User: What shape does this take?
Amino acid sequence: MSFGIDLGTQSCRVAVWQNGQPVIVLDEEGNRALPSYVAFSGDGRRFGSIAKAQQGANIENTVFGIKGFLGRDIRDTVIRTRLSRMPYRTSRTAGAAVLKVEFLGNQETFVPEEIVAMQLSKLRRLVDVHTGTQNECPVIAVPPGFSRHQRQALIDACDIAGLRTPYLIDDTSAAALYYAFYSSPALPNPNDPASVERLILVLNMGAGITSASIVAIEQGLVETKVASSNLALGGDHFDEAISKSLAAHLKSKHGIDVSDNPRSQARLLILAERARKELSSAMKASIDLEAISQDIRIPPVTITRDYLDGQCPGIYDDLLKLIKSLFQRSAFTRADIQEVLLVGGTTRMPGILSNVQAYFSGDTPICSVRNVDEAVALGAAIYGVLKGHPEGQAMPEKLEDMLLMDIVHDALGVAVLAESVDLKGPSTLPADGGSFHESVFEVVIPRNTTFPCRRRVDFSVRNVGDRTVNVQVYEGDSKQPMANAFLGSFELHNIPTVPAGSDRAEVVVDFDINSDHSVVVSAKDSKNRRRSMAIRVGRLSKIEKETMQQKAERFDEYDRMQEYRLRRRNDFEEYCYGARESIERLQTGVHECLEWLQGEGSTSVLDEDLERREEGVVELLRKALPPGYFIGRDAADCAPQADPESHSQTDDTPLYDCYD
Amino acid sequence: MTSRIGLKAFLKQSFYEVLGVSEDADAEELKKAYHQKALEHHPDKNLEDANANTRFTRVKEAFETLKDKDRRAGYDLSRTAQSPPPTGASTGSAYRAPPNRPSNAE
Assistant: This one.
């Protein structure tokens, strides 16, 4: 079966399809969200709220905010600065970030993909427990602005976690799908505004990333028109601003400098996050700073909404800039938007709502779904069913007419010789890969194209040398190939000349984008000799991934053993408390009988009295020594097994049976 | 599932036939037809059909050509210019790019 994941910068949510609708899966503590924290220690890993809660005591080995490093080039200065600000230890190899933690008494290094794989495994285990079945087909929501490299890193993380056939869906599309699922009437009705096509702007503002898209919804048909993300805009910018001003306050008023104390900084960040969330419903929030210092008593500080808005005016500007970029990237205008849909926890902030409202001058209805935090995960779960999971089952009736038509966000194309572009006729492909200084980017598939799709473009060949072309594939918006993302290249040799006046092109290049967003580029000459290339941008080799997968399995197995030991310990404790209670009851019972025997029972004895008391003591004795604990059971029955399928069975078997 | 014609015959159909509209269909009719045909041919709605990509691509191409006034005029012209079989197949290849090259400035 499939499950939908909203893999957030600050917290994750996971949903499955159940009883005709998507539902959120709870964690062991009953939380609806799992903070995106992984903590390493001498006795195993912790996830979610437990990992977040122990951060202060284990600051160097608690890892969080990994989403921002996934598939990113460490040579990017923004990424490098962000990485250096993290309280955990990091380094870099081959252009990628590496995290160093102490785990089970060893120094371990992990790449971001491995950490995300751990989170995915954890979420999958929650789903397995929830459904009682094995689940291995995740649908993961990603910001539309995620590059191919970032998407591939996420797919690699799925491979490492042993998850099969992962699908990625844009988070704004997932939210739109969920919105269409709940807001569209079952049957088309021309009088109902929900059954004609509506143009909706979806804004998903999370903790670290904000995405926006324009979608057309008609009944269950969701068609993305244009989408964009700001990968460095989100609620945690407010948190950082608040924690910075708290640090300044501590320094000036109380003489406490936290600048070289990562533990206090992490603490301030959590306090800031809590205050920011409180300000979504209250006009002011009080921040208790007592935990910062043991030496001095620090009175709490109070912050207001106005103060919060004043701290980071740039955030609202960036948000409106993101919305405006949608109009720049498409033919739509602000007046075309019929509804605005706000999702993501940060959109709860009143400042966000009022700024969006002001931008749309109050005429456009601003809608929301019941739980803004969960729409993305729930929409991803719906998409999983649409993609055919669970296998072999009929499509639920409500989803029969639902379809998501998604788009490519960046143009795809090839490098061509600059000198040939303004001439009449097809552009010329370069003969080798070294000619990029004289080449420009020619678009084959424009951005905002619905996929699956295929485009064919004719090219000519430079009439010198051995008549070879080098097809260099790029993705991006710049005329300069080097400013775009390089996706791969291949060559076609010994291209025959085409007679003048022929309507055949020297080389035709086809771009195919399949329904899973994968790209195949092929080129063929006039004699139909063809070469093609499937675009693969992964950073990790197959062997590296296999090694990481084995490592991940070992750690998962260790966690299972730990969980089993913990459960066994707790069961034993419960058993001992039970035994103590029975023994106490037996003692009281025996004592009463002895008293009776020496008192009333020493003179006149009735048969039935004696019988009743005898039976009572025997019963108490029997209860005090139940034959449950390890009696009549093989030790092998209780041990966890490596095979996960049989393991899930031992989960359900109580350790202490009663055999009466 | 609706009974469907074979892939070869499907690709031979004119853009109007692909969308199931008359030759004087207006923009609104085209969009309605496109949505209906997308639901019918999209690969997500035909998970077992390896040809769904090709069918959907054809539907999309038909809609994109006919919704654009100039491209529709060019397409109509190319159909009448050829000695037309009544089913009006004009493209040897299903995916011939439109004469105007796509560019960044779309």
